[in-house]
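Schema walkthrough. Field components (list of strings):
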Amino acid sequence: MSKYFDETQRAEEWLAREGFAKRQDISTVLENIRKPDAVEPELHEARLPRSRTIHVSTAADPSIMVGGNDSQHHSAEAYRALRTRLMRLQASKGLRSLAISSATPGEGKTVTTLNLGLCYAQLQNTPVLLIDGDLRSRRLSQLLSNPAAPGLAEVLSGEARYEDAILSTNNPNLFVLAAGSMMVSAPELLAGTAWKELIAWCSESFRLILIDTPPVRPLADFELITAGCDGFLMIVRAYQTQRESLQQLAGQIDPKKLVGVVLNSTQTYTKNGYSNPYPHKG
Amino acid sequence: MYLSHYGLKTEPFQLTPDPQFLQLADAHRSALSILFQGVLMRKGFLVLTGPIGTGKTTILHAVMHILNDQAVSKAKLSTAFVVNPTLTRDEFLEFILDEFEVPCPSTSKPRRLAALNQMLLATQRRGGTAVLVIDEAHLLSMELLEEIRLLGNTDTYREKLLQVVLSAQPELHTVLGRKELQALRQRVAGWCQLRPLSLPETRAYIAERLHVAGLQGSSPFLATTVEKIFNYSQGVPRLINLLCDQCLLLGVGSQRLQIDPHMAEDAAVNLGIDTELPAEPEPIPLVPSVAAPLPGIRTGNANNGNGHAQIDGFQSSVDMLIQAMKQRRAKARGQDIQ
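Field assembly_structure (string):
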């Protein structure tokens, strides 16, 4: 009987012979299936046929991980862990749009938004959109070398169409909606229905929408932005964020929409005693 | 019917499980991945559960489609698809042999089992594997579950010869939790659960379907309309399909290209599912989950709620969906139905 059994081929041998990787991602398989007769572009491609392309580089800030999965970068592993948690949350709760904010300015929202977006965009078939929702400081747009208008301000005030304002990047899965150049009053624009309609439209074609959001405390923008989103992430900078401001924050935010907290800039020492931002979600 | 009105090539919201229209929300993607990997790696038992209308059968068809026609075209898979599992042990075995196309002139059980075993070994020897898919597995009797476990026992030293995919409503979890079925429960190598879609997933679902159906330009559904559809359907894909299809029909009737929220309301009324999430929790009828009526079976009093004339089978399916929705709402409020 054992002799009989031994003639069977093991799964690995069989799959290897058929040209299959042992752990094949379902996205790759689906991609292969669609390709033969897939003259049709994906939904987001069809909707953004002539988007302008910008180049994401480390020029503005060395902490940007252009490669997304760049193993050289100390915090790459932490971002991947954050991505995994986020994907699990998406699988159980079906979230698409996430605002990223913090209690006070300067805690690392923008870099986290950009790096998380880059990291997520490394996955196959996962178009990611970054929105610079901070119409006052426009940090995300600065990090991306201030792409020319139109941007969010123009879209919300009805001056530009979505497809003209959303930019593609040198990463095929990463898309950006910069702040734009119009000088506008942020709360008025964000309070209108245009903001919710924009998020609704984006939820249709992007698997993840990350919105760089002004800090919660001094401004009204945060509440207006999160009203249209499925959830938000809070960034807390180690050794900097004050306990009091976090306590005040806790009373201000909607706990149902709080997806998680990222502890940023914890000190991790390498051989050279080098410290680096090390986000950790808890 | 309405295709040319909206500039579509095919009907976007058909109810048949068509792999072509596979729109994968995250839960569905992960289920598809687990089943696909599980069968290819010959893991033995795999379980797929999900509430009514969330797309279990669609996922099963998609997995079979991917495994059979496209991805492993050269590797020979033998598949048996059991859609109605209310059979006796002997009937079940006979049915499987038929599905696997195993010729067996004898009707004695040992002969039949031997023939099945031969086929399983032969399949594995030439590279490939055999898959037994059982839809509606929550309807399986205890003795059939035991029979299936014994069938799944056939293996080589290292790998399973028969891959069994059980697809069922969430009740199966309770059934498999029984002490008598511990042996089967322990053999399950992969569990996947489907859930209704969230609002953004509903948006993506509708947009993607229209896109695949050939829609050029903007969606006829306004953002607020999709919200309405989500409220009526509670994110259950089958109900979303029904509502959207009805909305598109209404749009043609009134010669309009945009579907506003009122039309979604009309569609819900037409379908008899106009019970949008009530502001006040309504009293929950006690529904013993085991005694839930089967789709397509007349329940006698299925039509007394609203005055719309409906086809009985359809109405009772819709009733079931509504019941499921109510149960889920009650669950969300932390109430116990049982």
